[in-house]
């Protein structure tokens, strides 16, 4: 490889023509020979050959042979069945069941035995076959009010119809409760629960019976509450304004001289209310 010498270009005209050609001014003309061309080929790396793509996996069709059938009875033939560990238990003989004290199917105690064994017989008026609860609707003492709601909700969960006697709406209920639990300490504070003529106690005693799972048995046979039913007379308020004095607790009593005097109504309580004749 070398530059073109003046032997090949003697005329200045030819140089001028080459200078004004497409190669541009100042460029040299290079002549390649066979040897230099072979050297240039060795400088270029050979093209990388791509490996052939791997052959794809083909799934062979399943064999059409039928599965092998193993007969377990043939394998167990000749074995001693009495040698197995988990052998069936022998049936009890008639002599074992002849013991009168042995009860193979014990039954749960009925509600009468649970009440009579654990609770005292104290029956409120007209409370032999119902649930009577002495409660209060006043929120002056928060703990007492929440205890009354807890007892009421426990009975509502069983759908039992209860007879609620609010001592805050009628002082007669408070005196009635004091006479029932005369001689007992802190028994006037509601709530107080009576079931079928037996005194259960307060909120703690009643909820303890519910936790032991005995409340459902104690309430067997009691009338059920109609789902969604509301008293048509009082709307489940259990009290109505007095029909005689219209809740004023006062009446005008006429005398022989024609004059009238104001007296207290004898039909309503101190709040001018009477019990609902439908749901009471």
UniProtKB/TrEMBL annotation:
PANTHER family: GLUTAREDOXIN DOMAIN-CONTAINING CYSTEINE-RICH PROTEIN CG12206-RELATED
Chain residue ranges for the region called Disordered: 41-65, 84-113
Compositional bias per record (Pro residues), positions renumbered to this chain: 44-55
Pfam families: Glutaredoxin, GRXCR1-2_C
Chain intervals with Low complexity compositional bias: 98-111
Residue ranges occupied by any Glutaredoxin domain in the UniProt entry: 131-199
Xref: Gene3D superfamilies: Glutaredoxin (3.40.30.10)
InterPro entries in UniProt: Glutaredoxin, Thioredoxin-like_sf
Protein name as annotated: Glutaredoxin domain-containing protein
UniProt xrefs under CDD domains: GRX_GRX_like
């Amino acid at each position: 490889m070398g530059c073109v010498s003046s032997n090949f270009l003697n005329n200045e005209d030819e140089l001028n023509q080459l200078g004004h050609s497409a190669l541009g001014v100042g460029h040299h003309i290079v002549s390649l020979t066979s040897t230099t061309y072979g050297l240039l080929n060795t400088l270029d790396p050979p093209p990388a050959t791509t490996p052939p793509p791997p052959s794809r996996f083909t799934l062979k069709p399943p064999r059409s042979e039928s599965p092998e059938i193993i007969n377990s009875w043939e394998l167990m033939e000749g074995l001693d069945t009495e040698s197995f560990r988990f052998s069936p238990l022998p049936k009890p003989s008639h002599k074992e069941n002849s013991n009168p004290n042995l009860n193979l199917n014990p039954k749960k105690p009925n509600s009468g035995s649970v009440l009579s064994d654990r609770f005292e017989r104290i029956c409120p008026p007209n409370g032999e076959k119902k649930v009577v609860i002495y409660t209060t609707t006043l929120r002056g003492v928060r703990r007492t009010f929440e205890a009354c709601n807890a007892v009421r909700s426990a009975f509502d969960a069983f759908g039992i119809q209860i007879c609620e006697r609010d001592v805050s709406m009628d002082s007669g209920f408070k005196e009635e409760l004091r006479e029932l639990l005369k001689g007992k300490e802190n028994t006037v504070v509601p709530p107080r629960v009576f079931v079928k003529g037996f005194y259960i106690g307060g909120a703690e005693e009643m909820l303890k019976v519910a936790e032991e799972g005995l409340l459902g048995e104690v309430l067997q046979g009691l009338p059920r509450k109609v789902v969604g039913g509301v008293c048509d007379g009082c709307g489940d308020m259990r009290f109505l304004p007095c029909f005689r004095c219209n809740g004023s607790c006062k009446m005008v009593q006429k005398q022989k001289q024609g004059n009238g005097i104001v007296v207290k109504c004898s039909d309503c309580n101190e709040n001018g209310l009477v019990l609902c004749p439908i749901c009471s």
